[in-house]
Structures are given as C-alpha cells and as structure tokens.
Design a protein that fits this description.
heterodimer, A: 6 helices, globular, B: mainly alpha
Amino acid sequence: MQLIISYLIGLIFGIGISISGMANPAKVLNFFDVTGTWDPSLAFVMAGAIVVTFLGYRYALKRPSPLLSKSFLLPTSRDLDVRLFGGSAVFGIGWGIAGFCPGGSLPALGTGRSEVIIFVTALLIGIIIAKILQATFAPAQPN
Amino acid sequence: MIETVFTPYQSLGGGALIGLAAAMLMATMGRVMGATGILAGFLQPTSLADWSWRAAVLAGMISGPVVLLLISGQLPPVQVPVSTDMLAIGGTIVGVGVTFGSGCTSGHGVCGMARLSPRSIAATLTFMFTTGITVYVIRHVVGG
C-alpha cells in the first residue's frame, strides 16, 4: 500500500513538474533572465505549489500521525548557519549554469533525453562528493 | 538563448499538482517532498522499508512525462540551451550545494516555504539570488 501510494505521489509530482515547465531548462533560465528573454512562468509554479502545500499541510498535520507511517518526520534543525547559506549559494550557481534543479531533472529523466541523463549523473556525483566531504570533516553531523 | 512562451495557467496548474503531491506525502508518509532528501535517502538507505518508498516516489516522478505522453500525445518540452560540459559542471555543483544546504527548490522552496521555516526562507532567498546572478553573468557579462 505504501509503495503504490508513494508511486502515485511521485507520478503526480512528475506530471506537475512536466506541465509547469520546471523540467525545461530554457524556461527556468529565462525566469532568471529578467533583462533578457524573461519568462515569469516559474513564479506561478512556485505560487501554485506553495499555496496548495500550505493548505494541504494544515490539513495533514492536524492528525496525530500520518496515515501510512508511525510519525511525522519534519526537519528539526533551526540553525541559520554557514552550511545552509553556503550550500544554498553554491546550489544557485549550479542551477544558473545548468538550468536544472533536482526536482526538475528527475521527472525529466522520463523523456529519455541524453542531456538529462548527463545532468542527473553529475548531480549524483556531486551528492556523493559532498557526503564524503561531510563524513571526512564533520562526522558528527547527522543528515 | 531560447525564447520561451509565458504559460501562467499551465505553470500555476503544474505548481498546484506539485503542492498536491507534497501534501499527500505528508498526509500518508509524514515526509517532506524534497527531491534532494528523497534522493539522498535513496542513495544512503537506513532500512529496506525506507529505501523502497523513496524508490517508488522516484519511479513515479520518472513516469510523469511518459504518462503525460499517453494522456496528451506529447512529451513535455526539454530545451537545453547549455553545453554538455556546462550540464556536467552545473550538475556536480548542484549536487554539492543541495547536500550542504540540506535542500533544493522542492524541499526548501516549496515545502519549507509552505511551513514558514526560517531556514528554508533563508535558503530559498539565497539560491534564487545566486541563480539570478549566475544567469546574468553568463548571459550578459561573459556571453554578452
């Protein structure tokens, strides 16, 4: 049951990403190119997603526990630290170079395009590099 | 550079589906719908049960364009105005950044913003700013 529902949730996300334009680097990069070929569509994606998530969370988190697992696992860290700002700043540079973010690229894999496969392979390599760095220099930090 | 058409309704509708998926994942599994977190847990599973729901979500995501093709007769457009080298470099940088930053556009930008998490708001403002600067520099300073 968990797996079927999880698959369907991934599918809804994947269709949403595909319809919204987030799987299309040209469209994503044009959102940020305000002084050039500007396309404000991404703001509508974010607005639609945030409003529905906000309302959905209010409903979902009213229950004492989720329907198919023991408890809610929400991020607990509250630190506004160098790691958060530095990591996010670096992510933005990569997003600006490639035009894909992780959530945009994973559904885009379904198109079978070689560019997406190259990006996702590099993304996985980057995640593994960062995990190794974290394990080497700050082994106490759980993720 | 490739010109793209402004699609407010499709983008709003697609965004609403992304939000629906996020709300459903919280209601059923009690988890945040962050691509980075789901992928990281898939690569470093803590148990078979934990790995398998992540694998199912990822499989669903990848099926998205195929199901859209079956419904509408068209795959979603993927236009890549970036060289292969830049995709590989950008992808690696994204992977490092989202791991240290604990999230990306879906985790911080959608789920965290919807929870009004100060960390996610700070992260989202940071990466939106550096993405904008990067695109400006590549298109109008270096390539201008």
